[in-house]
Design brief:
With 135 residues, the chain is an alpha+beta fold. It is 36% helix and 28% strand. It starts with a strand and ends in a 7-residue tail after the last helix.
Length: 135
């Protein structure tokens, strides 16, 4: 496994982010998804986030990303949702008819950690620490 590093730590932080369109409106096509992805890539630089994978359905997007330990994910997500809502509504005027207020995204989101060993394996490893090996 390749690990990331900074001055004082070694880490691997992978996240699966799911963002849903307000009212589950079916408005995401390839053009809008591509623009949402470009906006994501622009904003993630300021938060030390790396986009690994992006895909969409008609009413939500799935994002695989990596971050650093000091990344404030909730601030990044709010900044992204705010900026992308504003830009999409400006660049795709027909969106204003389908989503009548300033919002593009639902207020909620799903953020999951991914990768690494299963929890049971980590739990057993931690439980075994400090025990002497019997030879």
């Amino acid at each position: 496994m390749d690990l990331d590093t900074n001055n004082h730590s070694v880490f691997k932080l992978n996240y699966h982010l799911i963002l849903v369109v307000k009212y589950r409106k079916k408005v995401i096509d390839d053009a809008i998804s591509n623009r949402l992805k470009q906006i994501f890539e622009d904003i993630c630089l300021n938060y030390h986030i790396t986009l690994k994978e992006w895909n969409h359905d008609i009413d939500h997007v799935h994002v695989l990303l990596t971050a650093k330990p000091n990344t404030e994910l909730s601030k990044f997500i709010n900044a992204y949702k705010s900026a992308s809502s504003r830009r999409i509504k400006n660049e795709f005027p027909n969106m204003r008819q389908q989503l009548w207020k300033q919002y593009f995204w639902s207020q909620s989101y799903c953020l999951l950690t991914v990768g690494g060993a299963p929890l049971e394996v980590v739990k057993k490893y931690i439980e075994s620490q400090g025990q002497k090996e019997v030879r």
